[in-house]
Design brief:
The chain is mainly alpha-helical. It has helices at 3-14, 40-49, 52-56, 75-92, 97-106, 115-125, 132-147, 154-161, 172-195, 206-212, 216-231, 241-259, 268-284, 291-294, 297-300, 302-311, 315-326. 61% of the residues lie in helices and 0% in strands. The termini are far apart.
Length: 333
């Protein structure tokens, strides 16, 4: 018996009736011969981990641009924390942990350099708009593996696309990742903001502390436990009213004190100008783009190619390209 077949049988036997079993996937755009060992969702997870876009996340901003310290989150560490939280919830609800992990690991692959500052600029400059969740889908479907894409399953792509925005994922596993993303960034951004002197623990709203806990660990545990209790044996994923209200209030607090207009954002204007200059330069001088990107002009259009190139940059690569274009180098004898 193939190991994959045995795993699929275990899923049907042990998972919740509301879970998405691997054997019931809607499949891939391009049919493939099944693996003898791994289920389709396990293969998706592995493809994401081995992708170039996943490796680049380690040099992309979460909240703090170019922080002076080794312990601030990056887009990669955020992704790993989302995966851990989502897997804990999925396991406790007897949902498909492999599907959950694949969605979590892939949900931010299309994020821009300099975090949401870069996303805002590209959204403003692009005639069709730019959202990182949509671009994450483009990364896994079109750009990875020399523009062949990763050929992921329908459920993983849906979860990546719908981890944010108004459209809800079609699977409970995708809905778990949607919650886990917020749980992770609210709490680790609080830690980073305290570390950076942007806020102090005493600034956190008292009603949030009473409901959720004083420390990051206590808050995360409260949110996860509440989700498990509120969602157990039901065809939905949710938080209880009081915990949801406190979580929403805590998120609003972070927008007011950290995400918008704080000293943590003092470098964002520079980052936005840098991205804008790169975009406008490449639009005017497309011959400056790498050759493998220039080959796709006819199929994709210039603007899409420029968006693909800039969105794929890490923070430091974007700075490097800016310096190459705009900063004069010393004359050598």
């Amino acid at each position: 018996m193939k190991i994959r077949t045995y795993t699929e049988e275990l899923e049907r036997k042990n998972l919740s009736p509301y879970a998405k079993c691997s054997a019931d996937s809607r499949g891939r755009t391009l049919p493939e011969t099944p693996c003898d060992v791994r289920t389709d969702f396990q293969r998706d997870r592995d493809r994401i981990i081995y992708s170039k876009a996943f490796r680049r996340l380690k040099h992309k901003t979460q909240v703090f641009i170019s922080p002076e310290g080794d312990h601030y989150r990056t887009r990669l560490t955020h992704t790993l924390e989302v995966s851990q939280i989502a897997r804990t919830i999925a396991r406790s609800l007897r949902l498909n942990e492999d599907l959950t992990e694949a969605i979590a690991l892939g949900h931010d692959l299309g994020h821009t350099p300099f975090g949401h500052a870069g996303e805002r600029v590209l959204n403003k400059l692009s005639t069709s708009g730019f959202r990182h969740n949509d671009h994450s889908v483009r990364v896994v479907s079109c750009l990875e593996k020399d523009r062949k894409g990763l050929n992921l399953t329908y459920e993983v792509i849906d979860g990546i696309k719908c981890h944010t925005g108004s459209q809800m994922p079609i699977t409970l596993e995708g809905q778990v990742v949607r919650y886990a993303d917020k749980i992770a960034y609210i709490n680790h951004d609080i830690e980073d903001a305290i570390r950076g002197g942007v806020i102090s623990e005493s600034d956190i709203p008292e009603e949030c502390v009473r409901t959720l806990g004083k420390t990051s660990s206590e808050r995360i545990n409260t949110m996860i436990t509440d989700m498990i209790l509120s969602s157990s044996d039901q065809n939905r994923v949710s938080m209880s009213g009081p915990v949801q209200e406190a979580t929403t209030k805590l998120r609003s607090f972070m927008f007011d004190k950290v995400y918008v207009g704080s000293i943590a954002k003092k470098e964002e204007a520079k980052a936005e100008r840098l991205i804008q200059e790169l975009f406008e330069t490449f639009m005017k001088r497309p011959e400056m783009l790498p050759e493998d990107f220039r080959r796709t002009f006819d199929a994709e259009g210039l603007e899409q190619v420029v968006l693909d190139y800039i969105a794929g940059m890490t923070d430091r690569y974007a700075v490097k390209k800016f310096k190459e274009i705009y900063v004069p180098v010393s004359w050598l004898d």
